[in-house]
Amino acid sequence: MTRRCPRARPSSPLLLRLLSFHALLALLALAAASAGCAGTRPQAADAAPDVGDISFRDSTPLDDLRVDVDGPTSDSVSSAALPGSGPVRGHDAIVSPSAQLYDVIWRGDSGYFRVVPLGATQLPDWGNATAWAPLWTVADLPGQGDVQTLGLTVLQGAISQGIWRGDMGYSRSIPFSASGTPDLGNASAWSAPLSLSDIEGSGALTAQSGFVDSTHLHQSYWRGGMRYARRVPLLSDGAPDWANGEAWQSGDASALPGSGDVHAESIAALPGAVLLQTIWRGDLRYRRSGPVDAQKPAALDEAQASAWDGPVAP
Question: Residue 2 falls within a domain, yes or no?
Answer without folding.
Answer: no
